[in-house]
Amino acid sequence: MLSIINYIREFLRPHWITTFFTAKTAPLVTPPHFRDFPELTDKECTHCLACMMICPAPEAITVVKREEIWRPEITKGHCIRCGLCIEACPEDVLTSGRILAYKKEEELTLQGTFHIEIDQSKCMGCGNCTVACPVNREIDPALRSSGTSTSDEVIMRVDTGQNKVLHEEKCTGCKTCEESCSNGAIRVARIVEALQGGEK
Amino acid sequence: MNKYLYEKDLRQMKLIILESRRHDAVVLELAATLGIKRQQLRKILIERSDMMFLENLPARCDVAREAGDDTERLLGIPLLTQAFCLISKEDGVLIKEQYLRRIQDGIKHEAAVSEARMEMMELIRS
Amino acid sequence: MKKTVDISLPVGPMHPCFKEPCRIKCETRGEYVLAAEVELGYVKKGIERIMRGRPWQEVMFLAERVCGICSVIHNFVFIESVEHISGIVPTERAAYLRVIVNELDRMQSHLLANYSYCYTIEHETLAMYLLNLRETVMDQLELITGARVTCAFIVPGGVRCDISSDIADELRSALDHIDAELTRFIRIFETGPLIGLRSKGIGILTKDAAIESHAVGPTARASGIDNDQRSTHPTYTALGFSPVIRQEGDNFARIMVRFEEVFQSIRLIRSALEAMREGPIRGGGTIKAGSIRYRGEAPRGELLYELTTDDYGRILEIAIQTPSIPNIQVCAHAMLIDAQSAADITSIFISSDPCIACTER
Predict the structure, then answer these.
(1) Which of A43, A73, A106 represents a domain boundary (last residue)?
(2) Does residue A88 sit in the same domain as residue A47?
(3) Considering only CA atoms, which of B52, B56, B60, B57 is closest in space to residue B13?
(4) pLDDT, tens digit, 9 for 90 and up, residues A89-118
C-alpha cells in the first residue's frame, strides 16, 4: 500500500508531469571544460621536447619541422587525452579544456631529470638511437647525413662498437631513442616532479 | 567444490593465474609446508579448483594465516582447510590430534611433522 | 570427476544482465542451485606486466585503466602508495580535493551497481532513474577533472587542478539535487513489495563465509563485518568517517548499504568543501626506491597494491588485488549455493557488484 502511495507521489510531482509532456533530449554539446585532444595555440614551439618527455602513450605526440617551423603533432589514435603535455609545455603551445587556464593561474609545472640506461648485453652498437636523438642532431648536424659523429658534445655516440653516454645532462627525456632501438636495450628513466609556483 | 560439469580445457588459463606474483608466493609457501614441489601443488590446484577460486587464493591465505593455534599453523592446517579447501575441517582436526598424540608418545618433532605431512598428502590425493 | 545432476545451467559469457563477459556454470536440481563455478579469461589484459619498468606518469594511467568504473581509486591508491615509499605528504587542500573526486567516483559506481541490480530484477523504471541520476554525478566529475572516466586527477604530492568557488557552488547544488532525488528513489525501493520479494532473504552471505573468503566492501559490510579502509585513512578520519554496516547479509542489505554510502559520500564531500582552505595544491617530490603493500577503499571494497620501485622512480614489481576477486569468489561459492530459483542466479551475482575488468587485470 505504502509502495503504491510512493509511486503515485513520484508520478504526481509537477516536475515529473511537465517533463513527461515536454520530453526533449538535450542537444549533444561538448562542454568547454572537456579535456579534448590538445590543440595548437598561436605560440611558437621552441623544440624543447617537454611534451614528448611527459607523454604516457607511445608515439602519441611528436615535434616535427614543417615549413621551417617546429610544431607538435598529435596522433589521435594513440593520444589518451591526459593533458599532461599541456601542463609540461613551458611555452603554452598546446591547449585543451580548462588545463591551460588553470596551469597559468596556479603556476603549475612538471619538471624532470633524466637518466639513460643502456643494457650492454642487448646493445649491438648499431647507433640508431644516436642518429634518432633530436638533441644529438641539433648539436652535430653531421649525424643527419653521415650517421656517425666525432663531436664530444653529443649526448651519446657509438665508440668502438659500444654505445657510450657522454652528456646525460643534455637529455630531454623525449624517448625517441627507446622507440628507435630494435632490441629494447636503451631505457630513459624520467624522474618527474609536479610543482606549483614557479622555480623551486 | 571439486565436482564440475562440462570440462573445457582451462588449464592454461589457470596456470597463468597461478604464475602471477602473489599467487606464486602462496603456492610456494604451502608447497614448502607440504614438502612437495610447487609444480605438483599447482597441478593439484588446477585439477581441483575453478578460476575464480584460484584468483582469490592470496586473499584467503591472508585470512587463514591469522586463524588456528600455533600447532595448526606449524602444520599449515588453516591454509589447507580454510584457504585452499584441499582437505575438510574435520580431517584437519584429526591430523592435529594425531600429531599431538605422537608428540606425547615420545616421537621426535621432525618425524611427527613428516608423518602429518604424509597423512595430509594422502588425504589430498584421495 | 563429473557429478550426476538434473540440469547443468550455464549463464553467460554474454548475458543481458552482465556488464562484462564472464561465465557462471551452475549445477542445479530443478531450479535449485547445488554448486556454481565462475569461468574467467575473456578480457584478460596483463596490465601488471605492462606496468613494469615504467615511471609513475605512465603507470598512473595504466592503473586507471584496470577498471573503467572505479578508475579514480586506482589512481588514488597507486599514487598514495608511491608517496608512502618516498615520504611525500600531499598538501592539505590537495588531500581534500582527492577525497571529493574519490567520493564522486564512489557515488557513480554505487549508483551504477544499484542500477544494474534493479535492471536484473526487472524494475527498469527505477533502474533508468538511477542511471539518469548517475549522469549528474558524472557531469560533476567532468566539471572538476575534465573527463568522465579515467580522470587522471591525482599526481604525487597533490592533484592536477584546483576547483574555483563557482565549481564548488555548482557541486553543492548538484549534491542537493542528488540528495533529494535519491531519497525518493530509496523510498520506492524500500517499500516495493515485489522488490522485497526478489531481494529480501535471497543470496544470504553469512559472516563466517564472508570472513573466510576475505569478502570486502559493501558485500562484507552488509553481512556485519566492520571492514572499511577509509576508517584508517588520515583525511577521512579528519572528516569524521564511520562505516555503514548492516546485519542481514542478503541482496536487499547489500543494495541498501550502497544507497546509504551514497548519502555518506554526499556528507563527506560537503564537509570536505567546508573544511577546505585556500592553499597550494601541489607539493612536488620525486619517487624513491622502496617497496610497499598499501590498501585503499575502492567502491567495491578493499584494493591492495603491492609494489617495488627503483632509484629512478620506476616500478619494478607490481601486484594488484582488486576488491572484485574475493567478492565474486564468495558470491559463487557461498551466496549462489541454495538459491531457490534460476532467476535468482543473476540477481545474486549482480548484487555483489562484480567487475570482471578488475578481476582480470
Answers:
(1) A106
(2) yes
(3) B52
(4) 888 888 887 888 777 777 777 888 888 888
